[in-house]
Amino acid sequence: MPEASPEEIERAARKGKARKFFAAEWIFVRGVPAMKFLPPLGPDEVAFAGRSNVGKSSLINALTAKRGLARTSNTPGRTQELNFFVQDGGEEGFEDGIPPLALVDMPGYGFAKAPKDVVDSWTKLVFSYLQGRATLRRVYVLIDARHGLKKNDEEVLDLLDKAAVSYQLVLTKADKIKPPALVKLQAATLKAIEKRPAAFPEIVATSSEKGTGVDDLKAAILFAIGRG
To answer: Which fold has domain 6-224?
Structure first.
């Protein structure tokens, strides 16, 4: 059996650290229907964006190992608010009173079973949050591996680039396509964003159902908030 390379050893150590970090108990804080209801600035935040039904809530549940933490639905457009989740410090609390990380589940874009004015208000909320949240460290833009980048995904990337908000692409439902096709998709997606100024140059492929890639995403999140 060949020895692990230094890079493989380091990668395994990062994933182990990330698993331990995410093993904490996670709780739902609040749903935010408008900017005035945002929680006070505190922990670092990472947000999850993507087309409706791309699997944002399922991925958050997989990251926190808490089924049902983020509400999932087969109905596109079910998430209508910014939903905040943080680690629970328990009776001892946190050293400085502030949880180390908040996960933010954002309303899906591209399709929603709701009146146009409601969809427009969600869109305004999301974009206002992205451009004005000082504690936001990175946005994870989820792309369905079965479909790849679509026009409305690219429009969101344009906005993130314009707002200079750091983002990283995550392929979801990666188990639904064959491994060679996944490798090709990752390479094509990376090439498609190589000239985008705010894009982090790595693609993470995940499957919430199978659990593949979830530890890689945990490690990527820790790196993004300076704890990796």
So the answer is: Rossmann fold (3.40.50)
Give the residue ranges of DSSP H helices in the chain: 6-22, 56-64, 116-132, 151-163, 179-192, 214-224
Residue listed under structure tokens 């946005």:
139
Under-70 pLDDT residues of the chain? 1-2, 72-79, 91, 111-114, 228
With a pLDDT cut of 70, the percent of the chain lying above it is 93
Amino acid at 182: L
* Cα 77–Cα 82–Cα 85 angle in degrees, nearest 5: 120
CB-side neighbour CA atoms (13 Å) of 93: 4
- Give the strand pairing for 101-105 and 26-32: unpaired
Residue 213 near residue 174 (C-beta atoms within 8 A): yes
Q: Where are the domains of the chain?
A: 6-224
Of 3, 14, 56, 74, which Cα lies nearest the Cα of 215?
14
Could you tell me which of 191, 188, 190 has the C-alpha nearest to residue 180? 188
